[in-house]
Each structure stands twice: as C-alpha cells, then as structure tokens.
Design a protein that fits this description.
397 residues; Elongation Factor Tu (Ef-tu), domain 3; Threonyl-tRNA Synthetase, Chain A, domain 2; Diaminopimelate Epimerase, Chain A, domain 1; 3 domains; 6-stranded antiparallel barrel; 5-stranded mixed β-sheet; 8 helices
C-alpha cells in the first residue's frame, strides 16, 4: 500500500519515494510509489498535478487498490524519485473543499437544507441542495454565516476513527464506509466524513462568495467560490465593469439604466427594420403579381440570391394572397445550399408538398410541408438555372 503523505501533512510540497512499479493501462503510462504527496481524484476533489523527476504528472487515480501516477512517458530506470506537487493547485483545492464543508454545514444548521452532492470545478464549485427553491435572503444569510466562521479562524482538524467511535460525533451525513474512517472537524460547527485535503484553519479559506443558483433535477444547485478564486472573480467582473463604463459612457451605478435604455432603442430599431423589410418584400411581391398578369401566367419561378428563409416564405405568402389562382416557386442560394419554397393560392388544386418532393428526390434533398405550402433544400450540386429547369420539368409532369 502506498503511504499517503497528503494525509500526514497536506502542506508537504515535495518528497522522495521508491518506485514500486512502472506499467501501462488503457489510460496511459503510470507509476506506483511506496509513498506519495499526490492526492488522487476522489470525493468531489480533483487530483493533484506536478512532476516526478523531470516528467509531468497528468492524472492521479486509485485503481484496484493501487495509487497510480499517470505520466507523459516512462521514467528513467532508477530506484528512487523526487516528486513535487503543483502547490497553487493543491492549496486552491484545499480552500474550495473546506469552503464547501462550511457552506453545507451552514445550510444545514440555519435552514436544515441538506447537501446531496459536491463538485469542485476548474473555475467554480457547486453543491446540490435537497430543496426545490432558494431565496436571495436565504443565500445572503448563509454566506454571512460562513464568512463569520472564516473570520473566527477556527481550527480544521482531521481524525481517524473506528465505527464504534462515531457515536461520539454529530455527523452531518451518514457514512457509507465502516473502515478507514476519516473525519474532518470544525469544532462546534461541522463533523463530516471526508477523504479530501483541507487547510488547518478556517481563516485560510479567506472568504466565500455565493455566485448564483438554479433548479437542477428537482434540487437547487448553488455555485460558489472560495479564497483566491473570490479575488479572481472580482478582478474579472471589475475589468468587465470598466469596459462597460467606457462603452456605454456611463458611471458604474448607472450601468443597468444605460443597458435598459440601449435595449429599448435596439428593440425599436429592430421593429422599424422589420417593417421596412416587409415593405420592400411587399413591393417585390407586387412586381411578381404584375409580371403574372402581363404574361398571363399563373405560375412563376424565381431565382433569388442570399435571402433569408423567413423572407422567402413571407414573399411567397404575399404573392399567393394577392393572386389566389397562382403558384409561386422561389429558389434561393445561400453559401453552398439551395433552398426552395413552393406556395399556391387557395383556388389551386396542385399539391405543393408533392411538387417539392418530386423535385428534391432527383437531387438528394430534404423538405416538408403540406398541399398549400412546402419548403426544403439540397446541396448546391446544380446551378441556379438548372434548378429552374428541374422545377419546370417536374411541373410539366
């Protein structure tokens, strides 16, 4: 069994060890040592990273009772090796994990909300609470309680106990193991079974900030950060705020008001553009109607270029509404694809769905619709003029 130095001293950053085994499995090359300071993935906490000799560690996992250090390539043949963990990553995980203990304990102590899962992510952390909703007032209450405990700088203790000794502690949740039981204890606040790494006091967590929360499969997922990540979040949001004050030419307290005003202007402009576009399309539809009357033809096929599908649909509906004995086929090319809309007036019996289906079958296209209105498309294997000939040929049949 590998001696787990991270349990003896989570602050140990380097160590020497004897190489017990070098091998390879489906996940890559790995090394087994007689002792290690590298924490493996487990309990919601990611693994440590670092180097063994001159080789980078890419993962650490417990597999079949072995603690395997996955490395980029084989180590040189030697009996002993020096390891050094990525301390910034380790201490960050210690802060986040201890912060989660504080957050979960506060939710349970003040509101009787139980935590059912925990995830320590690369940028943020989450806990899932066994509740249906969470209010802003509740989140603020819990956040204050946690930061008060942090400021009190209470000790964070770890203790190995037997199953019989558990009766001495008021555990926050029932344990699933009966051997090698490790408790993480914040006196008079939290008693919890945990195999992760933690700082020696709550003060080293520094601070905790609840970012947001959302409903997740009948529960509430709370997103939060601790320690140095709070400063990172503050810096990111501070830089965004500076950019927004410059872009909107507004002081920070007026940013929301400026964004609301800008959004209103955008919606008004969007509405005017939509009306103007519809006017242009109506004029275009009128030109098609005049063309039908001039040539005394109730069927018209038009080739268009780079028109959005919604505009092509609007155009077709406008024409058949004005000439209810007409059929219009509009073909538009967008990048490397042709799209087709077929529409008929309410006094025409021909099926647009059948017309489109017969045309698309010849070019491996897809489409759908009904007897009055159908649409579809295909890759641009034909030219625009060939598409027109294809539709004309199908209609003659």
């Amino acid at each position: 069994m590998t001696v787990k130095l991270f349990y003896q001293d989570p602050y140990q950053q380097s160590f020497e060890a004897e190489i017990v085994e070098q091998n390879e499995d489906e996940f890559g090359y790995y090394v087994v040592l007689d002792q290690t300071a590298f924490y493996p993935t487990g309990g919601g906490q990611p693994n440590d990273l670092g180097i063994l000799g001159d080789v980078h560690i890419v993962n650490v996992e417990e597999v079949g009772g072995q603690l395997r250090h996955y490395i980029e390539n084989y180590l040189p043949e030697k009996d002993r090796i020096t390891g050094e963990i990525d301390w910034n990553r380790r201490f960050d995980h210690m802060q986040q994990h201890a912060g989660q203990h504080l957050l979960s304990a506060a939710f349970e102590e003040l509101l009787s909300y139980k935590t059912v899962s925990f995830h320590l992510g690369q940028d943020t952390c989450t806990i899932d609470l066994d509740i249906e909703s969470l209010t802003k007032a509740e989140a603020q209450l819990i956040e204050k309680k946690v930061n008060d405990i942090i400021l009190e700088n209470r000790p964070i203790e770890t203790r190995w106990v037997s199953e019989q000794e558990l009766e001495q502690y008021q555990l926050r949740k029932k344990l699933t193991v009966k051997e090698n039981i490790r408790l993480v204890i914040i006196p008079d606040f939290d008693y919890n079974g945990c195999g992760g790494t933690h700082p020696s006091s709550t003060g080293q967590v520094a601070s905790l900030k609840v970012l947001d929360w959302e409903k997740q499969k009948g529960q509430v997922r709370v997103r939060f950060v601790c320690g140095n990540r709070v400063l990172q979040q503050l810096e990111t949001k501070h830089q965004i705020t500076i950019q927004l004050t410059q872009l909107l030419n507004a002081p920070e307290p007026k940013l929301s008001e400026s964004v609301v005003k800008l959004n209103q202007q955008y919606l008004e402009t969007k509405k005017k553009l939509k009306e103007a576009n519809e006017n242009v399309l109506s004029l275009e539809a009128d030109s098609y109607v005049r063309e039908m009357k001039e040539i005394d033809n109730q069927v018209i096929i038009k080739l268009l270029e780079n028109k959005e599908m919604k505009d092509v649909q609007y155009l077709a509906r406008q024409v058949v509404a004005k000439v209810n004995t007409s059929i219009i086929v509009l073909i538009t090319k967008n990048e490397n694809k042709f799209q087709i809309v077929c529409a008929r007036g309410n006094k025409v019996e021909a099926s647009m769905k059948t017309l489109l289906k017969n045309a698309l079958e010849l070019v491996n296209g897809k489409g759908g619709g009904n007897d009055s209105f159908a649409q579809g498309g295909a890759e641009a294997t034909l030219s625009a003029s060939d598409w027109k000939k294809l539709i004309e040929e199908v209609m003659r049949k």
